[in-house]
Specification:
It is built from eight helices and 41 strands. It has 713 residues and is mostly beta strands.
Length: 713
């Protein structure tokens, strides 16, 4: 939740680098004009056809929250198909809006800034800009219903895909009734943002122009948007906390996270690290949570991996020397933290941007943090013992002439552990997933492990490494190596034997509040129910070193961080019918070309009663090369199906493996994962890799956590 110098918040979503022109001017061919009203400049003639699908029109739905959602989805999923032409609308009622960089809109004046008239069976508009994504036309159709279409092409077609909308509404009528208008508007904004994605528009156009049936087209739409819409509804349509639940959610928490991101300034590079908050007091009442974090308990760490001619590794460790407090919303399914944005003068002395450190420099610093959701992941009797969250933040530093000097972004996977009122039980079989980052000189290594842990009454632990994924990157030229190893046996001092996993024994110290120390090295916490533990390790800097030196910031020319999460494993686990909401961060490497931090924007994993599974995920990623940022996506959809042969659960150890091969366009994606099912099946944790071939050859590794959303039903 806390960020630091090279990696805090940043620009509003509508103008962040990851949108890549989806809402900002310049996308889809763009325009060289200033985006304002007409003032004698060049105009572009647009043709407009307004149509409806053969199914029951959205206007026939009663005025409700559902109709507001339907209108939003319909308005922005526009393709030239299935149209019955409306030819009796009044062009004088047509409206045109520009979308500003901060997400606000500016309306042009009909008859002054643009013209609209009937043209045969359709309409013609003269607009003061060429085709682009940062403007749209709104057409009143009937009653309170309007169609909207972004000005992405000269031949515009406004056409509601009502069958898709009806399918979405039919499954969620009860949920819509629980939403406030403000929450509905937030969902609408998210849908608009997604549907304006140029890749989504291109996919839909390709489906129609390729002769797809209505059912095929709607399946394409559903595949592109369903995961994110579902996530929005899961976040907002949640029951209120009862008094006993509010009491259970209150208490002292530990919070740690794994973060992956990037930056672009004089050079470009990767930021890998995370944070640890050792003391967060939370008090919940009437749906509002008040939190406080004492000074010197919030520790941040990042490994800065610079690319190209500036190739090298450095690390920063920082302790916040000021107390922090605030509020957020709490409901029966978790915590919701509102988005934050700060825009202020650059802080001289922070050493983030050298050009801004001079006395005469007048730089600005915009930091943005997206709203985050922490999903309750404890057992039904104590759901707030553990929470899983994910976040996204960006930063934008500019000089007095508005030249961009620094761009930063980051995604994270976080865990909240509630501190125990009495010593929890730590004994028996656990399964762990770990990601470690090690940078030194001009090389970076990222490794993902899955490991069996056997605890003996919280005094010692025996470990046995089962799987290892390794990605090495030369920071100067981005040459990379990738390896995946699976071990049937493990022994002490395996000495990197590719056929044998590492084994060993370490001492354990467990405190009465769940504080955990393994091998006098890994520190973290065990949940009160004894089902989940999380630890981290940083080198060369750690919290004790900072406090002992009476400093709040230290730097080094190398860096290492390890994030480990483990669950008490299930016996005879049955995942049939279970549905998991997924959180994930990952790193992709295209050998010799680029690296890409990945974050799961929204994702779900569902198991049927035949031993099969489906994964629907919307990825957020940013391509980074030696010259800076490249392509990016906010909603890159990946849908995978796993046959019963591709899913196995070990009845004794709770080990879960999932593998599949998918053809996506011209690319072949091979996906493999290994991890563990928690006792009670509320959590699954996975280490995974994905390898693509067929033109885009790349390797990806990451960690994934799934929280069951229907296990208590």
């Amino acid at each position: 939740m806390q960020q630091f110098t090279k990696w805090p918040l940043a620009v509003a979503v509508a103008s962040t680098i990851l949108l890549g022109g989806c809402l900002g001017g310049g996308g889809g061919g763009g325009s060289d004009d200033d985006g304002g009203a007409a003032g004698g400049g060049t105009t572009t003639r647009y043709s407009l056809t307004v149509g409806t699908a053969a199914a029951a029109p959205v206007a026939s739905l009663s005025q409700s929250h559902a109709e507001r959602i339907a209108s939003a989805v319909v308005d922005f999923l526009i393709t030239p198909a299935m149209a019955e032409v409306f030819s009796d609308l009044d062009p004088s009622t047509f409206r045109v809006f520009n979308i500003n960089a901060d997400g606000s809109t500016e309306e042009l004046v009909n008859g002054e800034d643009f013209t609209a008239e009937t043209d045969g069976d359709g309409y013609a508009l003269e607009l003061p800009f060429s085709t682009r994504y940062s403007s749209y036309v709104e057409i009143p159709v009937s009653g309170t219903l309007s169609y909207q279409v972004p000005t992405t092409r000269a031949d515009l077609v406004a056409n509601p895909l009502t069958t898709f909308v009806t399918q979405q509404i039919a499954n969620r009528v009860g949920q819509f009734d629980e939403l406030t208008l403000e929450e509905v508007d937030q969902i609408i904004e998210a849908v608009i943002e997604l549907a304006n994605d140029p890749q989504l528009q291109a996919d839909l156009d390709a489906a129609v122009n390729g002769g797809a049936s209505t059912e095929e087209l709607l399946a394409e739409v559903d595949a592109k948007l369903s995961a994110t819409i579902t996530a929005q509804l899961d976040d907002k349509a949640t029951p209120e906390l009862t008094g006993s639940q509010a009491s259970a959610a209150s208490g002292s928490y530990y919070n740690t996270a794994l973060s992956i991101g990037g930056f672009s300034d004089l050079s470009a590079g990767l930021l890998l690290g995370g944070w640890t908050v050792n003391e967060a007091s939370i008090e919940v009442a009437n749906g509002t949570a008040n939190y406080s974090v004492p000074a010197l308990t919030d520790f941040n760490f990042e490994v800065i991996n610079s690319l190209g001619v500036y190739a090298g590794v450095s690390s920063r460790a920082e302790v916040d020397d000021e107390a922090d407090s605030g509020t957020f919303n709490a409901d029966s399914n978790g915590f919701t933290f509102a988005e934050e944005e700060e825009f202020e003068p650059y802080e001289k002395g922070s050493d983030s941007v050298s050009a801004c450190e001079t006395l005469s420099a007048e730089c600005t610093d915009r930091e943005y943090s997206a709203g985050t959701r922490a999903t309750a992941a404890g057992p039904a009797s104590a759901p707030f013992n553990t929470l899983i969250d994910t976040g996204f933040s960006t930063r934008d530093v500019r000089d007095a002439d508005n030249n961009q000097l620094l761009q930063v972004f980051g995604g994270d996977l976080g865990v909240f552990i509630k501190k125990s009122s009495s010593t929890p039980t730590l004994n028996g079989q656990y399964g762990a997933v770990e990601m470690s980052v090690n940078g030194e000189s001009q090389y970076m290594d990222v490794e993902v492990y899955t490991t069996e842990l056997t605890f003996d009454q919280a005094t010692k632990v025996n470990y046995c490494e089962k799987h290892r994924r390794e990605l090495g990157v030369n920071l100067s030229n981005l040459d990379s190596s990738f390896a995946v190893r699976h071990f049937d046996t493990c022994v002490e001092a395996a000495d990197d034997n590719p056929l044998v996993g590492e084994a060993g024994e370490n001492p354990v110290v467990l405190g009465s509040d769940g504080a955990l120390d393994i091998d006098l090295d890994l520190t973290g916490w065990l949940s009160p129910d004894g089902l989940t533990l999380v630890t981290s390790l940083e080198e060369p800097n750690n919290l004790d070193a900072l406090l002992d030196a009476e400093e709040t910031l230290l730097q080094a020319n190398q860096g290492f961080r390890q994030f480990l999460m483990a669950v008490k494993t299930a016996s005879n686990a049955d995942l049939s019918g279970n549905r998991y909401r997924l959180v994930s961060v990952a790193l992709l490497s295209e050998d010799g070309a680029a690296v890409e931090p990945h974050r799961l924007n929204a994702g779900y994993l569902e198991f049927d009663d035949q031993g099969q599974a489906t994964l629907s995920a919307a990825w957020q990623w940013q391509n980074i090369g030696v010259d800076g940022f490249g392509e990016a996506s906010l909603n890159d959809q990946l849908n995978l199906s796993f046959s019963s042969n591709g899913v196995t659960v070990d009845a004794q150890t709770g080990a879960l493996t999932m593998s599949t091969v998918a053809e996506i366009g011209s690319e072949t994606v091979e996906f493999n994962s290994d991890g563990y099912v928690q006792e009670g099946e509320r959590l699954i944790i996975l280490g995974y890799d994905a390898q693509t071939s067929g033109g885009f050859d790349a390797d990806m590794l990451g960690v994934m956590v799934g929280v069951c959303t229907n296990c208590d039903q």
